[in-house]
Amino acid sequence: MKIKQKVKETLGEHINDYMLITTDEEWIEYCKKAKEDEYIAIDTETDSLDSILAHLVGICIYSKSQKPAYVPVGHISVITEQKIEPQV
How far apart are CA 31 and CA 5, in angstroms? Predict the structure, then answer.
């Protein structure tokens, strides 16, 4: 399943309350604006609860002047074992 489809499915009616950042340019722009805020919240998303075997698949970020955002960075297709695009 493509990342954008999964996000839409997961968020449902709340889809417009969040951002999905899938390009380097969007990520850089978000970070530039976030830099002006006093605080930034960051959470990492992994593919496992095992801290030794887990791989980073995404970053959740929030700054008070912007919507919360999800940044996919390491989603891999279970079929092709290739990185799913688009991702930062």
Answer: 25
What tokens appear for 7 in the block?
A: 């996000």
Rounded CA-CA distance 71/56 in Å is: 11
Quick: pLDDT tens for 17-56.
899 999 999 999 999 999 999 899 999 999 999 999 999 9
pTM, 2 dp: 0.81
Residue 29 near residue 37 (C-beta atoms within 8 A): no
- CA–CA separation, 48 and 33 (whole Å): 31
